[in-house]
Amino acid sequence: MPLRRFLHLFTFDQETGEPANTFSIPNDKLGIYKWTQKLIERRNLFALLVYSCAAGGKDMRVADIKGIMQDIKTDSVSARRLISQAGFLSKVNADKSISVVLKVPLTFPRGKRKRA
Does the pTM exceed 0.85? Predict the structure, then answer.
């Protein structure tokens, strides 16, 4: 069941082009699923948030997120951008480790406008 939920949240069906509806499909016909860049970023953000909650405890403070960054195969620039979109503050330390902390009240970065 967790795999079905994962596919439902982070993939789309290649045949229909819609988000994967894996709950109504039998096990032997799960279909072919694809990742888009937006869904990959969403998956990475969820992974970073879950890791920050689990490793940070009540204070939501993590000394280094390099381990999870290597696991989800993302670079430091995109990881810092994603985690800041969730309201966390990130900082690169002298030893190149990236620490994150959630401070209240939350401050989110301003939205970027695309130029036509």
Answer: no
